[in-house]
Design a protein that fits this description.
The complex is a heterodimer of chains A (111) and B (111). Chain A is mainly β and 111 residues long. Helices cover 0% and strands 51% of the residues of chain A. In chain A, the strands form two sheets. In chain A, strands 2, 4, 5, 6, 9, 10 and 11 form a seven-stranded mixed β-sheet that branches. A four-stranded antiparallel β-sheet of chain A has the order 1-3-8-7, with no helix packed on it. Helices cover 0% and strands 54% of the residues of chain B. Chain B has no helices and eleven strands. The chains are: A mainly beta (111), B mainly beta (111). At the A-B interface, β4, β5, β9 and β10 of A face β5 and β10 of B.
Chain lengths: 111, 111
């Protein structure tokens, strides 16, 4: 039973570029949440998708957007990348009131 | 004031000892609490979750919740070197929504 899978594992971009990160939830899960984790900090909530709609959003600018597909997989898009966007991006999936389980993350570096 | 605060680390305990990790939260609306373990360079792994006041035990781990004092703790009995990691405390309004994380406590268990 595959867990939460994210791709790519590492990514290097330059300022001003755009990036798309992908997440496939654990089998049986229908809710996907995205978090940003800077070095030495706890994860910060970006947004959560359920039934292909953004259900909840954290304090992130509109440069951060997402999508959920009918198969429950999800994408995180970030436009106009800034140096401060360098972080580990984590996807977590869940079902109903069960706890969220995290994927291995995508490490994004901005040059 | 941070919404979720963890006791400052790093915390160092000898092998076989009890490690005590503490967390306070400011939002009385928080209903659910989670402890995740994160090894260096890896993603958070769920250890325990607790919704009700009192203690919840799972193997060597005990989570404690006191909603009146807005306090959550994790006890690790018979600590092992493999328990050395960063421990993240998170709170949630519901059981399925946004997780608000503390900054993490680094635990080192030395032989």
């Amino acid at each position: 039973d595959a867990g939460v899978t994210q791709s790519p594992t590492h990514l290097i971009k330059t300022r001003g570029q755009q990036v798309t990160l992908r997440c496939s939830p654990k089998s049986g899960h229908d809710t996907v949440s995205w978090y940003q984790q800077a070095l030495g900090q706890g994860p910060q909530f970006i947004f959560q998708y359920y039934e292909e709609e953004e259900r909840q959003r954290g304090n992130f600018p509109d440069r951060f957007s997402g999508h959920q597909f009918p198969n429950y997989s999800s994408e995180l898009n970030v436009n106009a990348l800034l140096l401060g966007d360098s972080a580990l991006y984590l996807c977590a999936s869940s079902f109903g009131d069960q706890p969220q389980h995290f994927g291995d993350g995508t490490r994004l570096s901005i040059l | 004031q941070k919404e979720v605060e963890q006791n400052s680390g790093p915390l160092s305990v000898p092998e076989g000892a009890i490690a005590s990790l503490n967390c306070t939260y400011s939002d009385r609306g928080s209903q659910s609490f989670f402890w995740y373990r994160q090894y260096s360079g890896k993603s958070p792994e769920l250890i325990m979750f607790i919704y009700s006041n009192g203690d919840k035990e799972d193997g060597r781990f005990t989570a404690q919740l006191n909603k009146a004092s807005q306090y959550v703790s994790l006890l690790i009995r018979d600590s092992q070197p493999s328990d050395s990691a960063t421990y993240l405390c998170a709170g949630c309004y519901t059981s399925y929504g946004k997780l608000t994380f503390g900054q993490g406590t680094i635990l080192t268990v030395h032989p």
